[in-house]
């Protein structure tokens, strides 16, 4: 047997750490793999406090030994990206800024909280519109007729006549499936095209082709999901939306 090198043992004890270089995290059921220095990149943050401990046994783990954090697993990706690059990069039309700001507050990331904080509008008021756009995105201008949800109001002059908003189109239709595979599905017909949105905006876009019989006398600034169109051609509905300056931001279907 050989005697151990005393100098080597001392050096090993100095470099020892309770955490490996590669760390697996289970955040609300979502698994993330990152490096230990990334979790320490923001001094004073919650993750920094967790992973600078001298004893890792106090941290919760799941059944597979991964460190467990009981927070929103889907939003944690943006927390981790910020700790890597110190930049905030979100998808276009990101709808969960408020929830992400709450997560940033929990993880003690004041810089990220500041980036996510909503900015005051020109009228110095917040919350007038429950569906505000992201702060870094410009509002529809007079020369941007085809920005998100910007419909040209008939007879309007420049930017003063434009109204921002969203319209959702739904349809009830039928289709047949082929014998061999689902890729042979054939679309048959549309039974009804339904419209959901603000009453005044829906009337501006679809005019007299909008059937209001299921929800009559609805105030212009109220929302409805009971309108439907008098025609049954999806292309015609999209033509009217395109003519009014809208473009599609999302779609979903159970058919092919």
Automatic annotation (TrEMBL):
<dbReference type="Pfam" id="PF23110">
    <property type="entry name" value="H1_KCTD8_12_16"/>
</dbReference>
<dbReference type="GO" id="GO:0045211">
    <property type="term" value="C:postsynaptic membrane"/>
</dbReference>
<dbReference type="InterPro" id="IPR000210">
    <property type="entry name" value="BTB/POZ_dom"/>
</dbReference>
<dbReference type="InterPro" id="IPR011333">
    <property type="entry name" value="SKP1/BTB/POZ_sf"/>
</dbReference>
<dbReference type="GO" id="GO:0042734">
    <property type="term" value="C:presynaptic membrane"/>
</dbReference>
<dbReference type="GO" id="GO:0051260">
    <property type="term" value="P:protein homooligomerization"/>
</dbReference>
<keyword id="KW-0966">Cell projection</keyword>
<keyword id="KW-0770">Synapse</keyword>
<dbReference type="GO" id="GO:0008277">
    <property type="term" value="P:regulation of G protein-coupled receptor signaling pathway"/>
</dbReference>
<protein>
    <submittedName>
        <fullName>KCD12 protein</fullName>
    </submittedName>
</protein>
<feature type="domain" description="BTB">
    <location>
        <begin position="21"/>
        <end position="124"/>
    </location>
</feature>
<feature type="region of interest" description="Disordered">
    <location>
        <begin position="123"/>
        <end position="157"/>
    </location>
</feature>
<comment type="function">
    <text>Auxiliary subunit of GABA-B receptors that determine the pharmacology and kinetics of the receptor response. Increases agonist potency and markedly alter the G-protein signaling of the receptors by accelerating onset and promoting desensitization.</text>
</comment>
<keyword id="KW-0472">Membrane</keyword>
<dbReference type="InterPro" id="IPR057093">
    <property type="entry name" value="H1_KCTD8_12_16"/>
</dbReference>
<keyword id="KW-0628">Postsynaptic cell membrane</keyword>
<keyword id="KW-0597">Phosphoprotein</keyword>
<dbReference type="Pfam" id="PF02214">
    <property type="entry name" value="BTB_2"/>
</dbReference>
<keyword id="KW-1003">Cell membrane</keyword>
<dbReference type="InterPro" id="IPR003131">
    <property type="entry name" value="T1-type_BTB"/>
</dbReference>
<dbReference type="GO" id="GO:0043235">
    <property type="term" value="C:receptor complex"/>
</dbReference>
